[in-house]
Write a structure and sequence with these properties.
Keywords: Cell membrane, Membrane, Transmembrane, Transmembrane helix, Transport
Transmembrane segments: 31-54, 91-118, 130-149, 161-187, 208-229, 269-287
CATH topology of the largest domain: MetI-like fold
Family: Belongs to the binding-protein-dependent transport system permease family.
Shape: globular
GO cellular component, one term: plasma membrane
Protein name: Carbohydrate ABC transporter permease
Number of domains: 2
Helix content: over 70%
Mean pLDDT: 82
Number of helices: 14
Length: 302
Amino acid sequence: MSTPTVTGPATRTAARPVPSRRPRRTRPLTVLLHAVLIAAALIMLSPLVFGLFASVSPLDQILSRNGGLLPRVWEWGTYVQAWTTASFSRYFVNSVIVTALVVLLDTLASSMTGYVLARRRLRGQRLLEGVYVGTLFVGLTTATLYPQYVIAEALGLANLLGIALVQLAGIMLVHIFLIKAFVLGLGTEMEDAARVDGCGLFGTYWRIAFPMMRPILATTVILGFQASWNNYQVPLVFSLAAPDLRTLVVGVSALQYDAAEGMTPYNTVLAGANMALVPIVVIFIVLQRHFVRGWTDGSVKG
């Protein structure tokens, strides 16, 4: 004798067929937007592609009107020539030292200043922040560059450290306000617990707040690295009397004027420019995830 099958509400519900999702239709506006963005990206990448191909092309092909984009002969020796003959190895080391000093000092000084401005109410704080904002709107970098060099020379800082300190003074302000806005958006529960456990201001900053600043610090590291690595005016002024202080950007520019017989080796210059571009691209690829988050948080919060 067979046992009757009992069908309850749950069974009937499970037996219902699952409705299939309709495939999303691609809107014409979306297709047009993607096409415009791809076209804009290709236009922006075209100078980089031309520079890459021209750096390994013969010089006569670059100077020719009908030389074409692809090299007739791939001359990879231009990179070796730029690295050795044009002293780019020395300039590269100078750029690494200056940029490392700027990024390290900027990370510490900007994070400490931004944290104090966000967590403490100081006398004259509004006036101080007003002065900071005022210096952002008034372009004093070029006007004060020579006095800064004179002061650095009088202090015995006419060297790579002096270049880093002058560059640091020009990029810290924006980073201070970004970090302050980011810290204002953080909760204070962990900091309050640290103070109860006996941490002072610096201990709370270093052990609690500093690790939580990782996204915005990644943003300031990328911005500081780019600003220092691409800086031209400050290293140029410091290296006028001491060519050994040239950074890679100044060396690429100086190669046009140091060329023998008045013929500028554009392929070697472009090889040096491509070498100067690589570190920025690598840093951005490594930190891009934190860069976007830190930039938006630092801009919106507060």
